[in-house]
C-alpha cells in the first residue's frame, strides 16, 4: 500500500502511474463524497474524497488535471444528485434509461466545475494545500450563481454539528469548507512525510473549538411563540389534479383544527394548490378563524399578481408565502426557482422529454420575486422567509436573516421521496441557522418538517411520509453573527489573496508535462 501511495504521489519513483489510475481513483473519490452528507453522515469521507483528488493531481500536467478533475466531478454529481431520478422518472413520466441519461448529462456539465478548477490549479499555482483549498472554495461559491446556481454537495455540510462547524457563524459554509479541504490536503502532505502540516491542522482544529465558545446572538426577553407546523403528506402525483384540490384543503384544514389558538400555524410550500384569485372565500374564512382564535397563519400558495400582470401585459405568477391572521400580514415571493424541481428550463424544447410536467402549474410560468423583500410580520415579530431551494443559497438566507427575529422555510420535497435529497436539504437549513444565529422552522409536505435552534441543532422533527403536526416553541433572537454582518467576503478575499501569493511565488514552470521531465 505504501509503495502504491508513493507512486501516486511520485515521491520515491520518477515514473508515474499511467493516467488511467488517477482518473479511476478520482471517479471513485467523487462518487463516495455524498455519503459524507445526510442521511449517512460518514463525515470522514469528506476528508478522504478531496484528499484522493489532491494526491491524484500530484505532478500531473494541466491537461491531465482537467480530465482528472472532470472524472471527480462526474462521480460527485452522478451519485450525489441521483435523487433527481425520482422527479424525472416517477413524476416526470420519463422512461428509466432516458432519466439516467439526463442525470449523466447533468453530471458531465456540473463536473466541468471541478475540471476547470483542477486545470487552473496545475496550470498556474504551486502544489500546496494553500492553493488547492482556496480554488476549491471559490468554485463552490461559483456554484451559487453561475447559470443561476446549483449550490449542492459542499464539503462543509459534512461537518454540520461536527468538530469544525464552530467556524460557521464567523465565516459561513465556505469557511467551513476551506478548513475541511486544508485538513484533507494536510493528510496527504503528512503521508508524504511533510510532517510540519500537522501544526496548522492542529491549529485549525483548536480554532474551531475556540470559535464554538463565542456567542454572537442572544434570545430576546420575550415569551417564545407557540408554533404548529402542518405536514399534509399529499402525494405528488395527486397534488395538482383538479379533482384532488378540495381534498388537499380538507386534509390541511382537519390537521389544523386542533391548532387554532397557538401563536403561529405554518402550512408548507404550495399547500394550497390554487391561485388566491380562485379561492378567496376559503382564504377569508381562514383569516376570520385565525383572528378569532388569536393565531397567525402562514401558508404556501401560488399567487397571481393581477396589478403587475396588467402593467406588464402578461400574467405574473409567483410561488409565495402568505401571512395573515391575528396581528400578522405579509407576502413573500420566491426569488430563486429550481430547474427540474420547480420549472423546466427551455420547456418548449423539452416538452417531449418530460410530458407529464408540462401541465403542472408548479413547474412552469412562475416569475422571480424581487430582492430585499420585507420579512413577514408575525405578532410584532419579523419572520424571514425561504421557499424550498432558496435555503441552499447562503447569501440569500443571510440577507433575510439580517432583518428578522427568526426564520421559516417551507418546501415540498415529495418530488424526491425515498431519496437522500430531503435529508440533505434539511442539513442545509441547519447550516443556515448556525451561520445566522436564528431559529429556523421548516414546514414540508412529506418531510422533513423540523424545528432547528440557532446553533443548527434539530430540536424536534416530524416523521416522514405521513400526515403530522409538529408543535414547539420559537424564541426570537437578537444580535448578528460575524457572517451575517460580513457575508462571504472575508473567506473569498482571503482565498483570493492566497492565490495571488501562490501565483507570484510559484515555480518557474508549474504545468509539469511528461516531456519536461524526460
Automatic annotation (TrEMBL):
Associated pathway: Protein modification; lipoprotein biosynthesis (N-acyl transfer)
Pfam families in alphabetical order: CN_hydrolase, LNT_N
Matching PROSITE patterns: CN_HYDROLASE
EC number: 2.3.1.269
Domain of life: Bacteria
Enzyme class name: transferase
SUPFAM superfamilies found in the cross-reference section: Carbon-nitrogen hydrolase
Transmembrane regions: 17-36, 42-58, 65-85, 97-121, 133-155, 167-188, 195-216, 489-505
Function: Catalyzes the phospholipid dependent N-acylation of the N-terminal cysteine of apolipoprotein, the last step in lipoprotein maturation.
HAMAP family on file: Lnt
Protein name (database record): Apolipoprotein N-acyltransferase
Species name: Acinetobacter chinensis
Gene behind this protein: lnt
Amino acid at each position: 500500500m505504501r509503495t502504491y501511495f508513493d507512486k501516486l504521489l511520485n515521491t520515491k519513483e520518477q515514473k508515474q502511474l499511467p493516467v488511467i489510475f488517477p482518473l479511476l481513483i478520482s471517479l471513485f473519490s467523487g462518487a463516495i463524497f455524498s455519503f459524507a452528507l445526510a442521511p449517512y453522515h460518514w463525515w470522514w469521507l469528506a476528508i478522504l474524497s478531496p484528499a484522493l483528488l489532491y494526491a491524484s493531481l500530484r505532478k500531473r500536467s494541466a491537461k491531465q488535471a482537467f480530465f482528472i478533475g472532470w472524472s471527480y466531478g462526474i462521480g460527485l454529481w452522478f451519485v450525489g444528485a441521483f435523487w433527481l431520478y425520482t422527479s424525472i422518472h416517477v413524476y416526470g413520466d420519463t422512461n428509466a434509461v432516458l432519466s439516467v441519461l439526463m442525470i449523466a448529462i447533468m453530471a458531465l456539465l456540473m463536473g466541468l466545475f471541478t475540471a476547470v478548477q483542477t486545470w487552473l490549479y496545475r496550470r498556474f499555482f504551486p502544489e500546496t494545500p494553500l492553493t488547492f483549498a482556496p480554488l476549491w472554495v471559490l468554485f463552490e461559491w461559483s456554484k451559487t450563481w453561475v447559470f443561476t446556481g446549483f449550490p449542492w454537495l459542499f464539503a462543509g455540510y459534512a461537518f454540520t454539528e461536527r468538530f469544525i462547524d464552530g467556524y460557521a457563524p464567523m465565516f459561513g459554509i465556505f469557511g467551513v469548507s476551506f478548513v475541511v479541504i486544508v485538513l484533507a490536503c494536510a493528510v496527504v502532505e503528512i503521508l508524504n512525510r511533510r510532517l510540519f502540516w500537522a501544526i496548522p491542522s492542529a491549529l485549525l482544529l483548536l480554532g474551531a473549538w475556540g470559535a464554538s465558545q463565542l456567542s454572537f446572538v442572544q434570545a430576546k426577553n420575550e415569551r417564545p411563540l407557540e408554533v404548529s407546523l402542518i405536514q399534509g403528506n399529499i402525494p405528488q402525483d395527486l397534488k395538482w389534479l383538479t379533482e384532488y384540490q378540495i381534498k388537499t384543503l380538507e386534509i390541511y384544514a382537519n390537521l389544523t383544527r386542533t391548532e387554532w389558538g397557538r401563536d403561529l400555524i405554518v402550512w408548507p410550500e404550495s399547500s394550497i394548490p390554487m391561485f388566491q384569485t380562485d379561492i378567496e372565500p376559503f382564504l377569508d374564512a381562514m383569516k376570520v378563524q385565525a383572528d378569532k382564535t388569536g393565531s397567525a397563519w402562514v401558508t404556501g400558495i401560488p399567487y397571481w399578481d393581477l396589478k403587475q400582470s396588467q402593467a406588464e401585459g402578461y400574467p405574473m405568477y409567483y410561488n409565495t408565502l402568505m401571512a395573515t391572521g391575528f396581528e400578522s400580514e405579509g407576502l413573500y415571493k420566491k426569488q430563486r426557482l429550481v430547474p427540474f424541481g420547480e420549472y423546466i428550463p427551455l420547456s418548449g424544447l423539452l416538452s417531449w422529454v418530460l410530458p407529464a410536467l408540462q401541465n403542472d402549474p408548479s413547474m412552469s410560468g412562475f416569475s422571480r420575486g424581487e430582492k430585499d423583500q420585507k420579512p413577514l410580520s408575525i405578532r410584532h415579530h419579523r419572520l424571514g422567509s425561504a421557499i424550498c431551494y432558496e435555503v441552499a443559497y447562503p447569501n440569500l438566507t443571510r440577507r433575510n436573516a439580517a432583518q428578522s427575529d427568526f426564520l421559516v422555510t417551507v418546501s415540498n420535497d415529495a418530488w424526491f421521496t425515498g431519496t437522500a435529497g430531503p435529508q440533505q436539504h434539511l442539513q442545509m437549513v441547519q447550516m443556515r441557522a448556525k451561520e445566522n444565529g436564528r431559529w429556523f422552522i421548516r414546514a414540508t409536505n412529506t418531510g422533513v418538517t423540523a424545528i432547528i435552534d440557532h446553533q443548527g441543532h434539530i430540536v424536534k422533527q416530524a416523521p416522514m411520509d405521513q400526515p403530522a403536526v409538529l408543535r414547539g416553541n420559537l424564541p426570537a433572537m437578537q444580535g448578528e453573527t460575524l457572517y451575517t454582518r460580513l457575508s462571504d467576503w472575508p473567506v473569498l478575499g482571503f482565498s483570493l489573496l492566497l492565490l495571488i501569493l501562490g501565483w507570484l511565488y510559484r515555480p518557474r514552470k508549474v504545468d509539469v508535462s511528461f516531456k519536461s521531465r524526460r
